[in-house]
């Protein structure tokens, strides 16, 4: 197989850079009729973009707006003449690069972190660690929506509804009722210091993730005393005060400052939970800006059992596999084996434990594209049609793959193959789209309005899906994107809806050949993965920006992209090692950024 | 004991609530006996088969369409509304703009999250804002699935938009309860006056409210809004706890008490989940725990597998892109009709709940609809909409109302808000009340 020309397959990467004049021409030709200083339709006037060359710095917001509308083809509106898909790609890749270059030129100035509350999972994990209990106190809380880079920890989409207040009260009650009866839990938060003041002095800083402020303990102590006066027992009254702590904005929101903010950023990034004793004490000693210390801490944290939380939250949302078995359900009549509890959990956890292993063992990130190992139980091995390895049982563990396994990397995983399928059949379109979107970060724009239908078959013999899709691509309105999506999906046709290997489909041999827009061809997943491996920089960059967005718990700005450049360069220089990625993210300016005006004024 | 047991058995069958003694007590007060007006809105994602929805004929002379056939026994209590739409939902994208704007009649700000806004308030929340203080819960938001994960980079929207119809403010979607058991517990507890250790909880909430107030001065504008959000939800909880003293609530008691033993069992599939949620709306209305409810059969773009319907294969969203294939259209229509049948189940249940001279349905307005007509084309024109119940006699039901093409749905909402007792001059792009709705 020869090197593939990706010119048409990938929009942003490989185009010849058109000059500024071309971008200006496009704006003049297609935008200015409505978005001129006089009409300024929708309040948008694009004239300023045509002026001085430094408009990329001075009018970055406006440029960004133009780029995103041109990219997703929502402008010009339906019925108006618009640029060709190729012209759109050239325009957006050129302008995006210039916006970034302008943003990076004067150094990275990250935005102040927005105030955010703990999301549902963080709440549950934090209560667990705070009280040393082993129940999920957050199970009744409403789920959180996602923003930014696509994660449910994004500050901008963590709303509060009236229902939250009720549920936080209930959840705290539930957790404390449980904790008061559990000796292991009592030992952690109730019994180290006998009197109420002692207990609260120990508890408050842990719950608020920073030292108590003057007078703070007294206020909660007053609540304890009032409850005692009402006739509550000592335990009742202390737990009442602690319930208040768990309802306080200082607990529910991430309000820490200085070194304590860094400790919490680290722990919510890598554990999805509160800092432990060691992080607290390092914050106290102001050690958490020292790169060497941070390196050691990261190595410690990613090998801790709590890193599973990180792997699960990040991977499920990155790959879209959280919905598997819920919103995404293979047809139970056609794919019964998926509904075996052990198989299904093996499928769901394969990418999660794989990710955790890549990070903990500091393996190359390229293992996500292709690897000689994966994570399986003996049941999953059989499900994949592999010979069970002696000694492997129910517990999913990293296993070396035989050479002809067809597995390895994300594209050999049933979870990925299932979320990119329809319930009852595979879809080369969806799988191709999944790869472009989730691995390369180059999602195709949505289909144009009034999508032409797949042509009906009038022949005696019904046409195959491949033939119908090929006819579909003959339509120039469709071909621009489907030439990028469909062939990739065909390369994965040997996997059925739930990711089992198949040589035949409906009695015919599977045709897993893909022909790319430049005419080059490949056959089957192994060759497809080799093609993707040639695009490893694109993959690593996308993974880095996803992980960065997750770590920062917000959407990335143009300036953050400058930080991503640095991170990716460092990762590449170090053989794509996973921990280097985590470390470079932590050491980046946006992650360690301390707002100029403190988030909270000390009283 | 025997009486108790049989009563419980009866309750399970009839939808959770006790009946007789309270009704008798209420009969003494005619105003109370008549019952308040309630309002619910039920959302179907992915639109409907466009040729199978609209009835034949207009006005009082109309024949129900195949999709609306399950409503036949309730025909004289319906208003089928044709040619209404939300002009703000044109463009943007196929789905998100249509669902978030369904009850707001606005267009949403395109964003992955940072500047999320529906640029309005949903009409159910407007009603709740004005009348919510009269019941333990101002409103109830129910659904079958949690907010969708992730952001949709293809079209540039956060999926938060596709997961909410109730917005209490432009930037505040209301979280949904998706577990019938938890919904039941909420109703049960909210309906018990003086429950829990009222006084202690109030002191507790006062303390954390004080924490939040102290915080605010040091924060930037956006962060202060978040803390305001916190203050408002904690305060609303506090008000509820001490609602005996709260204005307008002094006289509240459940119209029908709730039996804790009637808590719904674990549901085993989607169909059962929907039924249980319908039961919860009925219970909430019957007891008067709230007068405003919304329910989402699914988030927009839901690919719920309807394989449990004989002849349907595959996910809802996939099928809604029927590409005019007869086989898919047939399945699409079956799914739509199943939704209508669940709606009919709720209406029938409400109609069976006696209240004064009439029943709960007579005193309610229950809207069923979608922001999309034909899912294949993401068509926002002529939204499928049907309204049931007479709002205590304020609504002139039993008609198929056909408006001029592209009339604002906001007009219908103006009429509904009027019938609910919370009239507004204007709502979003309304041009007046919708003709023929009010009696």
What can be said about the biggest beta sheet of chain A? 2 strands, antiparallel
Number of distinct helices of chain B = 12
Uncertain spans of chain B: 1-27
What general outline of chain A do the C-alpha atoms trace? globular
| Overall helicity of chain B | 25-40%
Number of domains of chain A: 4
Q: Give me the strand/helix succession of chain B.
A: HHHEEHHEEEEEHHHHEHHEEEEEH
Report the end-to-end length of chain A measured between terminal Cα atoms: 68 Å
Radius of gyration over C-alpha positions of chain A, nearest whole angstrom: 27 Å
Q: What value does the Rg of chain B take, in angstroms?
A: 22 Å
Shape call of chain B: globular
Mean of pLDDT of chain B: 88
Q: Give the total of domains of chain B.
A: 2
Largest interface: A-B, 84 and 80 residues
Structural class by helix and strand composition of chain B: alpha/beta
Question: Number of DSSP helices of chain A?
Answer: 26
Defining traits:
heterodimer, A: 603 residues, mainly alpha, 4 domains, two-stranded antiparallel ribbon, 26 helices, disordered N terminus, B: 439 residues, alpha/beta, Alkaline Phosphatase, subunit A, 2 domains, seven-stranded mixed β-sheet, two-stranded antiparallel sheet, 12 helices, 13 strands, globular
Give a nutshell description of this structure.
Helix content of chain A is 51%, strand content 3%.
3D structure, described in words:
The complex is a heterodimer of chains A (603) and B (439). Chain A has helices at 20-30, 55-58, 60-71, 85-105, 120-131, 162-181, 183-189, 196-208, 216-229, 234-247, 249-252, 258-270, 277-284, 291-303, 307-319, 341-360, 378-383, 414-419, 428-439, 465-474, 476-490, 524-533, 536-552, 558-573, 578-587, 589-592; strands at residues 373-376, 397-400, 504-505, 508-509, 513-515, 521-523. Chain A has 603 residues and is mainly alpha-helical. Chain B has two domains: 2-191 and 250-420, Alkaline Phosphatase, subunit A (3-Layer(aba) Sandwich); 194-242. Chain B contains twelve helices and 13 strands. Chain B has helices at residues 2-14, 20-27, 30-34, 96-100, 123-131, 180-190, 198-216, 221-241, 270-287, 316-320, 326-351, 409-420, and strands at 38-43, 78-85, 140-143, 151-152, 157-158, 167-169, 172-173, 292-296, 354-355, 358-359, 364-369, 385-388, 399-408. In chain B, the strands form four sheets. Chain B has a seven-stranded mixed β-sheet, sandwiched between helices. Chain B has a two-stranded antiparallel sheet with strand order 4-5. In chain B, strand 9 and strand 10 form a beta hairpin. Chain B is globular and about 65 Å long. Chains A and B meet through helix 6, helix 9, helix 10 and helix 11 of A and strand 7, helix 7 and helix 8 of B.
């Amino acid at each position: 197989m020869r090197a593939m020309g990706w010119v048409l397959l990938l929009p942003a990467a490989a185009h010849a850079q058109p000059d500024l004049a071309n971008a200006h021409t496009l704006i003049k030709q297609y935008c200015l009729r409505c978005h001129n200083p006089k009409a300024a339709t929708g309040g948008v006037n694009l004239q300023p973009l045509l002026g001085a060359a430094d408009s990329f710095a001075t009018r970055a917001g406006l440029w960004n707006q133009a780029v995103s509308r041109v990219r997703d083809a929502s402008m010009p509106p339906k019925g108006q003449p618009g640029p060709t898909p190729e012209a759109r790609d050239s325009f957006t890749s050129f302008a995006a690069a210039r916006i970034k270059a302008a943003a990076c030129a004067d150094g990275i100035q990250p935005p102040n972190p927005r105030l955010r509350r703990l999301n549902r999972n963080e709440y549950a994990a934090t209560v667990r660690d705070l009280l040393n209990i082993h129940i999920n106190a957050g199970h009744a809380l409403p789920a959180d929506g996602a923003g930014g880079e696509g994660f449910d920890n994004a500050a901008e989409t963590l709303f509060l509804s009236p229902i939250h207040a009720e549920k936080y009260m209930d959840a705290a009650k539930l957790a404390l009722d449980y904790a008061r009866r559990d000796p292991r839990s009592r030992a952690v938060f109730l019994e180290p210091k006998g009197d109420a003041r002692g207990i609260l002095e120990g508890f408050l800083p842990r719950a608020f993730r920073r030292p108590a402020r003057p007078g703070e303990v007294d206020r909660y102590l007053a609540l304890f005393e009032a409850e005692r006066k009402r006739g509550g027992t000592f335990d009742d009254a202390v737990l009442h005060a602690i319930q208040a702590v768990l309802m306080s904005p200082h607990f529910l929101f991430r309000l820490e400052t200085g070194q304590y903010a860094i400790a919490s950023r680290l722990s919510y990034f890598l554990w999805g939970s509160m800092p432990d004793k060691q992080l607290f004490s390092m914050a106290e000693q102001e050690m958490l800006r020292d790169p060497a210390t941070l390196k050691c801490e990261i190595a410690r944290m990613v090998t801790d059992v709590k890193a599973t939380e990180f792997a699960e939250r990040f991977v499920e949302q990155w790959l879209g596999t959280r919905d598997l078995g819920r919103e995404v359900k293979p047809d139970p009549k056609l794919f019964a084996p998926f509904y075996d509890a052990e198989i299904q959990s093996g499928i769901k956890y394969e990418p999660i434990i794989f990710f955790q292993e890549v990070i903990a063992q500091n393996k190359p990130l390229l293992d996500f594209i292709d690897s000689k190992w994966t994570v399986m139980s003996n049941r999953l091995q059989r499900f994949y049609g592999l010979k069970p390895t002696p000694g492997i049982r129910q517990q999913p563990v990293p296993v070396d793959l035989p050479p002809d396994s067809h597995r390895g990397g994300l594209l050999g995983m049933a979870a990925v193959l299932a979320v990119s399928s329809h319930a009852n059949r595979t879809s080369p379109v969806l799988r191709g789209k999944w790869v472009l979107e989730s691995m390369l970060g180059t999602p195709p724009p949505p289909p144009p309005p009034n999508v032409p239908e797949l042509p009906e078959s009038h022949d005696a013999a019904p046409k195959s899906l491949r033939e119908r899709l090929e006819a579909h691509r003959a339509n120039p309105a469709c071909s621009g994107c489907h030439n990028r999506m469909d062939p990739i999906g065909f390369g994965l046709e040997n996997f059925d809806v739930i990711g089992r290997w198949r040589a035949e489909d409906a009695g015919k041999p599977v045709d897993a050949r893909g022909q790319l827009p430049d005419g080059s061809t490949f056959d089957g997943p192994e060759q497809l993965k080799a093609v993707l491996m040639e695009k490893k920089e694109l993959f690593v960059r996308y993974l880095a920006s996803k992980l960065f967005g997750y770590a920062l718990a917000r959407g990335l700005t143009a300036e953050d992209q400058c930080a991503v450049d640095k991170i990716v360069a460092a990762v590449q220089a170090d053989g794509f090692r996973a921990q280097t990625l985590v470390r470079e993210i932590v050491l980046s300016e946006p992650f360690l950024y301390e707002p100029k005006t403190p988030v909270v004024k000390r009283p | 004991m025997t009486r108790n047991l049989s009563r419980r058995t009866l309750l399970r069958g009839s939808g959770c609530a006790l009946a007789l003694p309270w009704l008798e007590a209420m009969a003494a007060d005619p105003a109370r006996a008549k019952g308040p007006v309630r309002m619910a809105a039920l959302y179907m994602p992915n639109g409907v088969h466009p040729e199978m929805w609209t009835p034949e004929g207009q006005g009082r002379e109309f024949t129900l369409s195949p999709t609306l056939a399950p409503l036949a026994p309730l025909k004289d209590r319906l208003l089928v509304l044709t040619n209404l739409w939300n002009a703000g939902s044109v463009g943007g994208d196929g789905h998100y703009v249509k669902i978030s704007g369904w009850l707001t009649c606005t267009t949403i700000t395109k964003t992955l999250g940072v500047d999320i806004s529906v640029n309005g308030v949903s009409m159910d929340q407007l009603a709740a804002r004005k009348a919510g203080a009269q019941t333990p819960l101002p409103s109830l938001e129910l659904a079958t699935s949690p907010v969708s994960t992730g952001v949709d980079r293809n079209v540039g929207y956060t999926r938060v938009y596709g997961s909410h119809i109730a917005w209490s403010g432009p930037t505040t979607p209301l979280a949904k309860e998706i577990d019938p058991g938890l919904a039941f517990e909420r109703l049960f507890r909210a309906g018990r006056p003086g429950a829990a250790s009222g006084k202690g909880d109030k002191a507790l909430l006062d303390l954390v409210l004080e924490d939040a107030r102290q915080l605010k001065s040091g924060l930037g504008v956006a962060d202060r809004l978040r803390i305001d959000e916190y203050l408002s939800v904690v305060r609303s909880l506090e008000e509820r706890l001490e609602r005996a003293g709260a204005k307008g609530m002094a006289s509240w008691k459940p119209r029908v008490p709730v039996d804790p033993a009637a808590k719904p069992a674990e549901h085993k599939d989607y169909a059962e989940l929907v039924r249980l949620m319908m039961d919860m709306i009925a219970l909430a209305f019957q007891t008067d725990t709230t007068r405003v409810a919304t329910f989402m059969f699914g988030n927009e773009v839901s690919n719920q597998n309807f394989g449990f319907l004989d002849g349907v294969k595959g996910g809802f969203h996939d099928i809604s892109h029927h590409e005019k294939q007869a086989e898919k259209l047939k399945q699409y229509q079956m799914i739509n009709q199943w939704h209508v049948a669940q709606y009919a189940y709720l209406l029938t249940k409400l109609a069976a709940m006696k209240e004064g001279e009439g029943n709960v349905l007579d005193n309610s307005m229950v809207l069923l609809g979608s922001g999309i007509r034909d899912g294949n084309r993401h068509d926002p024109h002529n939204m499928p909409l049907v309204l049931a119940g007479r709002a205590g006699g304020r609504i002139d039901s039993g008609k198929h109302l056909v408006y001029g093409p592209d009339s604002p749905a906001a007009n219908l909402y103006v009429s509904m808000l009027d019938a609910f007792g919370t009239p507004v001059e204007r709502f979003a792009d309304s041009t007046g009340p919708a003709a023929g709705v009010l009696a």
